[in-house]
């Protein structure tokens, strides 16, 4: 049984059906090299003009014009077959007792492209989270490569507010990677609880409700037991801004490492028992090899939180920041910035509808915080925050201003108590 591998930045060579073999000297055939690059660009989501591409290989132009359409057709066929597998519904329950050295305890979460289990790493008695690609694929599959790339990107982002990755493994054509147990819940669950009218949510209570009473009890990574009950209080704007600063710091770090998240939304941001914020799920991330350019390719992300320009395939730091602004909007107002009766209607609203001022929905939101949210969500990217550093600075200014204001208020009224 294959053992989990430590994550590295080593890429895997493209699988090219029918390509010429290497020459006797061991060097790659020039047609193979050209086809590898062509296929790499196709898999990256680019629209590659064949005539423009072959102009870079004048001595091989005729051969490549005959051969590359066959490469593209094989890739399309393989992608269609893999897509049929992915469209197969996940089973209600997975009959999996072990993955490598990890004994599966129970399922704790699932999404469109993965299921997460709580497991025990028996060799050292550590409880971990194991994310499994739920369908069986070969090692050269588009989906298994994407899953491996997700793990590789997350593994190299070592930041106190980003969920790290320990290792990657494969068993019986099932691919998985291993993370620490973060004893927390998504902002989406927090927002849902606040919508019930509670003015304060006890994180421990919410965690028990969502994950069960024994979730992560044997975990040893980042176990911070608060000395007192930790609450998230609605309309505690300094608390909201401190949590937002932690998330912004994580995005700032990822962006400076050349990585875009591309799917920032309430479900992918966590708050743990100690009140700390975490960025999770880099399943749609772009790594340093492509991330910081003005990319155009397939649309990716969650519709409600996507920046308008993402519908044109553009992604950069500002699109991540827009998504975070839409998430912060929802955390502060308890309503999404945009809604619709159908995906088409929702997409139209995201692209063209006017953003409602957060204070219209919740007049308690301070003007300064509203200004930060609205600048994050500017429809014109040039008028938006240009990088996470700018957001971070404005959040710190807000925290300093309102913390000082609250201290002054306390000094005036402390003798009343």
Radius of gyration: 24 Å
Please indicate the count of domains: 3
Percent of residues in helical segments? Answer: 25-40%
Mean pLDDT: 77
Provide the CATH topology of the largest domain: Transferase(Phosphotransferase), domain 1
The level-1 CATH class of the largest domain: Mainly Alpha
Structural class: alpha+beta
Number of strands: 12
Main sheet strand line-up: 1-6-7-5-4-3-2
One letter per element, helices H and strands E, the order comes to EHHHEEEEHEEEHEHEHEEHHHHH
β content, as a range?
5-15%
Report how far apart the termini are. 66 Å
CATH architecture descriptor text of the largest domain: Orthogonal Bundle
Number of helices: 12
Outline: globular
The main β sheet shows up as: 7 strands, antiparallel
Extract low-pLDDT stretches.
Answer: 5-27, 77-87, 218-223, 288-299, 409-417
How would you name the CATH homologous superfamily of the largest domain?
Transferase(Phosphotransferase) domain 1
Keywords:
disordered C terminus, single chain, Transferase(Phosphotransferase), domain 1, alpha+beta, 417 residues, 3 domains, 12 helices
Give a brief rundown of this model.
The chain is of the alpha+beta class and 417 residues long. The chain is 39% helix and 14% strand.
How would you explain this protein's 3D organization?
This protein is of the alpha+beta class and about 425 residues long. It has three domains: about 30-85; about 90-180, Phosphorylase Kinase, domain 1; about 185-405, Orthogonal Bundle (Transferase(Phosphotransferase), domain 1). The protein contains twelve helices and twelve strands. The chain has helices at about 30-45, 50-55, 60-85, 140-155, 185-195, 205-210, 235-255, 315-335, 345-350, 360, 365-375, 390-415; strands at about 5, 100, 100-110, 115-120, 125-130, 165-170, 175-180, 185, 200, 230-235, 270, 275-280. The strands form three sheets. A seven-stranded antiparallel β-sheet has the order 1-6-7-5-4-3-2, with helices on one face. The chain has a three-stranded antiparallel β-sheet with strand order 8-11-12. A hairpin with a 2-residue loop joins β6 (about 165-170) and β7. α1 runs parallel beside α3 and α7 packs antiparallel against α12 (about 390-415). The longest helix has 26 residues, at about 60-85. It is globular, with a radius of gyration of 24 Å. The model is unreliable at about 5-25, about 75-85, about 220-225, about 290-300 and about 410-415 (pLDDT under 50).
């Amino acid at each position: 049984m294959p053992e989990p591998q430590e994550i590295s930045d080593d890429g895997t060579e493209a699988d090219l059906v029918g390509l010429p073999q290497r020459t006797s000297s061991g060097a790659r055939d020039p047609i193979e090299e050209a086809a590898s690059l062509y296929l790499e660009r196709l898999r990256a989501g680019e629209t590659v003009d064949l005539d423009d591409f072959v102009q870079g290989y004048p001595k091989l132009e005729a051969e490549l014009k005959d051969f590359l359409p066959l490469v593209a057709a094989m890739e399309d066929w393989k992608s269609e077959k893999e897509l049929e597998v992915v469209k197969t519904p996940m089973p209600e329950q997975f009959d999996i007792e072990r993955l490598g050295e990890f004994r599966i305890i129970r399922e704790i979460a699932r999404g469109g492209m993965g299921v997460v289990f709580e497991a025990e790493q028996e060799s050292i008695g550590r409880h971990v989270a194991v994310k499994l690609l739920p369908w069986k694929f070969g090692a050269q599959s588009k989906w298994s490569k994407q899953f491996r790339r997700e793990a590789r990107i997350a593994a190299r982002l070592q930041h106190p507010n980003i969920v790290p990755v320990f290792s990657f493994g494969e068993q019986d054509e099932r691919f998985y990677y291993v993370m620490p147990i973060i004893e927390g819940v998504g902002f989406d669950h927090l927002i849902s609880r606040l919508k019930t009218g509670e003015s304060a949510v006890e994180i421990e209570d919410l965690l028990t409700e969502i994950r069960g009473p024994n979730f992560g009890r044997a975990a040893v990574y980042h176990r911070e037991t608060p000395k007192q009950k930790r609450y998230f209080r609605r309309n505690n704007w300094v608390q909201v801004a401190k949590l937002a600063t932690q998330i912004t710091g994580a995005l700032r770090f990822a962006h400076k490492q050349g990585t875009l998240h591309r799917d920032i939304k309430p479900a992918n941001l966590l708050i743990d028992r100690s009140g700390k914020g975490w960025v999770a799920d880099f399943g749609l991330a772009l790594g340093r090899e492509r991330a910081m350019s003005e990319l155009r390719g397939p649309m990716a992300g969650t519709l409600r939180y996507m920046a308008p320009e993402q519908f044109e395939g553009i992604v950069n730091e500002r699109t991540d920041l827009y998504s975070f602004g839409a998430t912060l909007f929802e955390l502060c107002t308890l309503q999404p910035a945009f809604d619709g009766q159908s995906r088409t209607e929702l997409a139209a609203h995201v692209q063209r509808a006017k953003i409602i001022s957060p204070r219209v929905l919740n007049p308690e939101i301070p003007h300064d915080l509203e200004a930060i949210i609205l600048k994050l969500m500017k429809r014109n990217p040039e008028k938006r925050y240009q990088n996470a550093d700018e957001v971070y600075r404005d959040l710190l200014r807000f925290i300093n201003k309102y913390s000082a204001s609250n201290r002054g208020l306390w000094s005036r009224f402390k003798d009343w108590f």
